[in-house]
Amino acid sequence: MFGLSNPQRFMAFTGPLTPVLWTAAVVLLAVGSWLSFTVPADYQQGETVRIMFVHVPAAVWGLGAYGALGVSSFFALVFRHALADAAARAAALPGAAFTALA
């Protein structure tokens, strides 16, 4: 586990996984979007209930990204680890995007 804390080993390990994970993310996003727009309307709230399918997950992911930003910033500050600093930088933009979407 600690072998992946070396940035070169980490990039060599995760490099081949990147296209596979991007493909899985795009497929899952397409399926989730299709399912959220084909759900029948609620009997009381009608079509307006569908905002819940975007708002709640975006808020949860935004909070999760800011939590990851805080934890990785703590590790970068205390332990001076290069990957923790990179993870904090990587979590900032999705956190802001999901917060804006929510």
Tell me the number of strands.
Answer: 0
Radius of gyration: 18 Å
Strand content range: under 5%
Helical stretch count? 4
The biggest beta sheet, please? none
Could you tell me how far the N terminus lies from the C terminus, measured between alpha carbons in angstroms?
Answer: 35 Å
Q: Low-confidence stretches at least 5 residues in length (pLDDT < 50)?
A: none
**Number of domains in the coordinates?**
2
- Give the overall shape, derived from the CA principal axes: elongated
Helical amount: over 70%
Structural class: mainly alpha
Order of helices and strands: HHHH
Return the average pLDDT rounded to an integer: 90
Could you characterize what this model shows?
It contains 4 helices and no strands. The model has no long low-confidence stretch (mean pLDDT 90). With 102 residues, it is mainly α. It has 2 domains: 38 residues; 63 residues, no CATH class. The protein is elongated.
